[in-house]
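BUG: 3D viewer hangs when loading the predicted structure for this chain

Environment: internal workstation, default settings.
Expected: structure renders.
Actual: progress bar stalls at 90%.

Input used:
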Amino acid sequence: MRLITFTLALALAQAFLPVSSAKDDKAKNAERLDDAASLLTEIMSAPDKSIPQDLFNKSYCIVLVPGLKKGAILVGGKYGRGFAVCRAAGGEGWGSPAAMRIEGGSFGLQLGVSSTDVVLLIMNDRGMKKLVQSKFTIGAEATAAAGPVGRDATAQTDALMTAEILSWSRSKGLFAGISLDGATLRNDIDENKIMYGQRWEMKDILNSGAKQPAASSKLIAELNKYSSRRTS
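Structure tokens produced before the viewer hung:
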């Protein structure tokens, strides 16, 4: 009898484990989406240190990676999870977020660990085509440039005018030689399944008309809020 009771209890516990795990995954996903929204708010509302509004208005897509981890003891590495969002068809509002990962390494005399928030603007159709690939490497497969800072800054240099991607970072720790060149952006299919119930890639989500998950409402609202502003 004890054996039967124990077996039933074990079976019930195992049956409920996936449900509990799924809830935890959804909670973590929702937290990451909120972190991405907060990052956008903090970057865009920083006095004289925000992403220039004219560049934001011209962008095709945005990638937000809160808390990109970097560490180095002679050999450096980076890893982070975030979301890409593109403008909806017709340019009105924003579409649904697609989960992505950014990872890569660097070599040289380095020492330190840091957590850095990263924002990428995809500035043209060429950059957008790279974004919807299963993966691509910044600098090697897509031209990238460090974005200027300041609400009224404009993209005057050839590098900024022709770059497919503009990047900004906000460091929370000390680290030397921060660069995204050589970093690879790739699909985060597991995270997309949490949001959409399907193992979709970015190409299946961005500009596809996929229904926005409820957990992304804050992020989409912030994107629409800052998109409503126009430079003079």
